Amino acid sequence: MIEMMAVNKWYGKDFQVLKDCSLKVAKGEVIVVCGPSGSGKSTLIKTVNGLEPINSGDIVVDGVSITAKSTNLDKMRSRIGMVFQNFELFPHMNVTDNIEIGQIKVLGRSDEEASEKAAALLKRVDLSEHALKFPSQLSGGQQQRVAIARGLAMEPMAMLFDEPTSALDPEMINEVLDVMVSLAGEGMTMMVVTHEMGFARKVADRVVFMDYGEIVEDAKSDDFFGSPRSARAQDFLSKILNH
Amino acid sequence: MDLDFSVIPANSELLVEGMKMTFLLTALAIVGGMILGTFLALLRIAKVPVLAQIAAAYVNFFRSLPLILVIFWLFFLVPLIMGRPVGAFSSVLVAFILFEAAYYSEIIRAGINSVSTGQLAAARAIGMTYWQSMTNVVLPQAFRAMTPILLTQAIILFQDTSLVYVVGLRDFLVSAEIVANRDQRLVEMFLFVAVVYFVLCFTASLGVKQLQRKFAND
User: Fold this and answer.
1) Which residues of B touch A92 (CB under 8 A)?
2) What is the pTM of this model?
């Protein structure tokens, strides 16, 4: 469903943030992308919906190339959900409006359809009683669940998660991961940048390990945790697992 | 010196008419200046080729000129460009809009830049176009952040409208001056004008402070 082919990206002239990255994500697959900070994993995931433009190579999502001139990137983005590290809910709108706005402005749904959908999604992320609150009145974990609902409201074919729990207090991480686990269980295609190795072990079909802008290892989850092939992945795992 | 303030109520009609003109000019200049200013700011923020440079030049140009010069210029220029007399009010209004837009544009640009880039990314990520993202997500937050500064600028504009006396437009100050000269009550009338400007502007700036405090607590 998502295929990256020899993707290269530079910041300026000298710094290459992505080096020949190639990757395939099949429909219904859950891929965890991990690696040290600055390894390019967040940039990688943001290239999938064109939020970060690439310099060479190509990315094809559901048969459509994001680099083709004829591609309507706005339309493509509406079909790929994205969840950000800092939630990025719209602070001047209440929770329901946050979930409705894309449906109304982008998909052209009626107010009734949009609010029905919003109510159902809020129920699903267990936030029905907060429907009319503003983001600033919610905890980080609650905000991130609203952000997931906002993405799901567009009925996306895939969801991208960029360190969805990194900005959360420890006690709130699980409420967000639980939602993600259940999504994966329903067969949602997901690309997740995360340091939550417990989540990766439990849910991921494959783990992609990045370092210095390269995809160093792309392995089945069990193989990756059982016996990482590269020394860099071994080193990374030993650092984040042994504490 | 014997002061006679009865000249004020005796001429209240004229003075009220003058104040109406002052408010009308202020309000129209704010609306026009904001619309043009927002447009200029967006051209620069979106880095629209050529137009962004023109917008930057425009802003620098008008911010380098004294307002009174712009008022004078347009008083003579607008009729020339239009090829017919347009009246002092129209030419003065155009002058204020053009001049204020330069200042508003900088305030609005700062306001837009104060909204985190993640907000634009989040709006784009759900499929909104650049302009949809701007109008639905970024601008509402930017305007909220800059409301106090915009209001302060509006208070300055309110005071600056008194400069229209140079083209003979009958605003509050000019009306008061007419009365002052006719009835030989210069001291009373100019005291009165000062008090009115002070009370209005001071009250308004207290309001702005209140608003700032409210926003800070939200």
Assistant:
1) 140-141, 144
2) 0.81
